[in-house]
């Protein structure tokens, strides 16, 4: 089983930056890709971005393209989400999740980290 722990959330002003981390442990060989998702109060959880461990292939939601950057450190089993030009609408709990090879869904989730952007 894979375990994921997010960190790096906080309160920043609009226009500011934050870097989130997702530390992956356990049976990490079972993880093919890591995705970041977010859920704002009263809204459904939405996909933000994902990256594959091997090739580093990324996929971004349109709402964050040009502002967020995902990266991974395979040696540390950690995925980062650099967020810049933050907006109040980016306020949400951010979750990272793992997807196994050959599986279409992200099935293992962290507990999330709160990101709050003040206007």
Number of strands: 11
How much helix, percentage-wise, in residues?
A: under 10%
- The pLDDT mean sits at 96
The N- to C-terminal Cα distance equals 40 Å
* Beta-strand content estimate: over 45%
Whole-number radius of gyration?
Answer: 13 Å
Protein architecture, described:
This protein has strands at 2-7, 10-13, 18-26, 33-39, 46-52, 58-60, 68-73, 78-83, 92-99, 108-109, 113-118. It has 119 residues and is an all-beta fold. It contains no helices and eleven strands. Helices cover 0% and strands 54% of the residues.
What is this structure, in a nutshell?
Helix content is 0%, strand content 54%.
Which descriptors would you attach to this protein?
119 residues; mainly beta; seven-stranded mixed beta sheet; four-stranded antiparallel beta sheet; 11 strands; 0% helix
């Amino acid at each position: 089983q894979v375990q994921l722990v997010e960190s790096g959330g906080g309160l920043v002003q609009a226009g500011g930056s934050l870097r989130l981390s997702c530390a992956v442990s356990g049976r990490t060989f079972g993880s093919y890709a890591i995705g970041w998702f977010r859920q704002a109060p009263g809204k459904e959880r939405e996909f933000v971005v994902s990256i594959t461990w091997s090739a580093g292939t990324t996929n971004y939601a349109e709402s964050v393209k040009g502002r967020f950057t995902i990266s991974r450190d395979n040696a540390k089993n950690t995925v980062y989400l650099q967020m810049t030009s933050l907006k109040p609408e980016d306020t949400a709990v951010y979750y990272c999740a793992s997807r196994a090879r050959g599986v279409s869904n992200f099935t293992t989730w962290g507990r999330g980290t709160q990101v709050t952007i003040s206007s």
